[in-house]
Amino acid sequence: MNTQEVANKWQQMCQSGKNLECIQELYADNVVSKEMPGVPHGEVVSGKKEVFEKSKQWLEDVVEFHSSEISNPVIANNHFSSKMSFDVTFKSRGRQQMEEVCVFEVQDGKIVNEQFFYSM
């Protein structure tokens, strides 16, 4: 898959609530995930299994998604970005509105880097 195809599949899977399946299908074994400083599950996580576990922990903390929106991906060579907005109630911290910009790098049809920029 090229970058556009990976981006479209990523968006489709995330909008369908298949976030963990997305990691299994679209992420490289050596993927690196970067979060904003101070996040409880680690600012930098390396490896597909570790990124999967980080995402699983985040999802397990969710009580309810009140709303969510994922923009169409913007492609630039082997990178794509998307804006995500959520209104979520968490077990650990209550209800929050979140906006984030996600940036992904694709190599050989797999996501090799992801980085999230957000406010809460």
Automatic annotation (TrEMBL):
Domain SnoaL-like positions: 1-118
Any matching Pfam family: SnoaL_5
Xref: InterPro entries: NTF2-like_dom_sf, SnoaL_5
Domain of life of the native organism: Bacteria
Protein name: SnoaL-like domain-containing protein
Biological classification of the source: Bacteria, Pseudomonadati, Bacteroidota, Flavobacteriia, Flavobacteriales
